[in-house]
Amino acid sequence: MDRVEALKRLKISMNLDSAALIQQSFCYDSARNWTVSVSWGYSVQILRGIIPAREMEIPIRTFVDWSGVGVDTSFSFNTRPVSMNPCQKPSLYFMSNALYNPKTNQTASEYARYRFPNQKCGLKTADPTRIVRVEVYKNPDSALWDKAPRRNCCRILPTKKKRTLVVDVGVCRDGETVEVR
Question: Does domain 3-170 have CATH number 2.70.130.10?
Answer without folding.
Answer: yes
